[in-house]
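Recap slide: CGNR zinc finger domain-containing protein, sequence and predicted structure.
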Amino acid sequence: MSQLNFSHDTELTLRATCVLVNTDRVDGERLDGMASLDEYLNAFGWTGRRDRDDAELESVLKLRTRVGKIWASADDEERVVGQVNALLSDTRASPWLTRHAEMPEWHLHLASIHDPLWQRMGAEMAMALADLIRAGELRRLKICAAPDCEAVLVDLSRNRSRMFCDTGNCGNRQHVAAYRERRAGEEHD
């Protein structure tokens, strides 16, 4: 069994990417204005320039669609590699080491704090996905196994056993349904 050994910022960025993709997959559009975009950005500690205008929101929504397609292609490594390489190229990712008072460990930034938000986010997301690919762990990108859910998840469990997203209580709903089905079967025996 392999041991996960991703850096903190890789795991955080993978989670942030997953949450971004899911902002329109459960309960309708949840990234519908500056307030919801700011809430998302603050929740994951995105730093740097924020224009706080419609063009910035639209560019983040386009990025969401683009990275969502990576999950949809996760079973085709060559295709995902092409998508990640294209995103790295389009964002002009240029890695450099930095640290902040609130995060004193060295970590990578992949774009200037002055670059547009989508570009910084896209570069970070592409690099986190590249780390996943390089580790041979692309199968950790999953679509929720609940039949009524299209949310994505990144399975960071040790044994890659996670099947359900965190967005719609899908795991609990599926377990309750299975329990009820078993109970109904026992009552008919």
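Strands lie at 96-100, 103-109, 141-143, 152-154.
Helices lie at 8-21, 34-43, 54-72, 77-90, 117-134, 170-188.
(End of recap.)
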